[in-house]
Write a structure and sequence with these properties.
The complex is a heterodimer of chains A (87) and B (176). With 87 residues, chain A is an all-alpha fold. In chain A, 49% of the residues lie in helices and 0% in strands. Classes of the chains: A mainly alpha (87), B mainly alpha (176). At the A-B interface, α3 of A face α1 of B.
Chain lengths: 87, 176
């Protein structure tokens, strides 16, 4: 990923992975950071919105709906969170 | 002997009571923890549901603003969707005749008050006077004209159906 991770994101990377896997209802051990949510993990748009809402509540941030296009994998989640946190 | 057995029983009962109290306290503490965790999860789910509803409403609003299309291009150009360029200017739309000067007064154009002209009547036929002349001065009556010869017979029309060809345009009469 070209975007630098925010320190909070880097620190809580494992929590974020766990949260993503819980929302998408997949096994955390079998998910790579580059696995695509829709194509690989079988998520739908409702799951992505739910994931976005979970991230907003967990980190107490607000993310625009346009960022849904970047929520394609865990690396994208890191990038969106880093941008929202100002990293 | 009996006192010793009674003391042992009392001690055993006290031990059991303490153990039961400890178990009850542990159970109550676990229940309180679970209740607190469930309450936090419920609050979290409520916040998540609220955020998700807000996102869905916003996405729905944007989709409607884009004319019902949820494609990326439609959402990206949402400011120009259903626009007609300079014709969207409200000031121009308010003018009854944009581009033409507006008269200063609102007097309606004069209406012609002349009575409508009656349709021309055909000239009344003048009664012909019949004058009588003597035979010597009587004007000569014009001789009746000889009947015109009948016009020569026109050549018979060609039957268009015979020469019309859908395939050969050069043969068509409208191409000649």
């Amino acid at each position: 990923m070209s975007t630098a991770l925010h320190p909070v994101v880097a620190e809580r990377a494992e929590d974020i992975r766990r949260l993503v896997c819980k929302v998408l209802e997949v096994d955390a051990d079998q998910v790579e950071d580059t696995d695509l949510f829709v194509e690989t993990l079988g998520a739908d748009s409702m799951k992505l919105i739910e994931l976005l809402a979970h991230l907003e509540v967990e980190f107490d941030i607000e993310v625009d709906e346009d960022e849904l296009e970047r929520l394609v994998n865990i690396e994208g989640v890191f990038a969106v969170l880093s941008a929202a946190l100002g990293g | 002997m009996a006192e010793g057995r009674a003391a042992a029983v009392i001690s055993r009962l006290g031990q059991i009571t303490r153990e039961m109290n400890d178990r009850r306290a542990l159970r109550e503490r676990n229940a309180a923890q679970h209740r607190e965790a469930a309450r936090e999860r419920l609050l979290m789910q409520g916040k998540v549901a609220e955020r998700a509803t807000q996102h869905l409403s916003e996405l729905n609003r944007r989709q409607k603003a884009a004319g019902g299309w949820a494609t990326g291009k439609a959402l990206a150009n949402k400011d120009n969707v259903m626009g007609f360029g300079p014709e969207d200017d409200d000031s121009r739309q308010k003018e009854p005749f944009p581009g033409y000067p507006v008269p200063s007064s609102s007097v309606p154009p004069p209406v012609s008050t002349a009575p409508p002209t009656a349709p021309e009547q055909p000239a009344a036929q003048q009664p012909t006077q019949t004058r009588k002349f003597s035979r010597s001065v009587a004007p000569r009556e014009p001789e009746p004209e000889a009947p015109k010869p009948p016009p020569p017979p026109r050549p018979a029309r060609r039957r268009r159906e015979e020469v019309f060809d859908d395939e050969d345009f050069s043969n068509n009469s409208w191409m000649q």
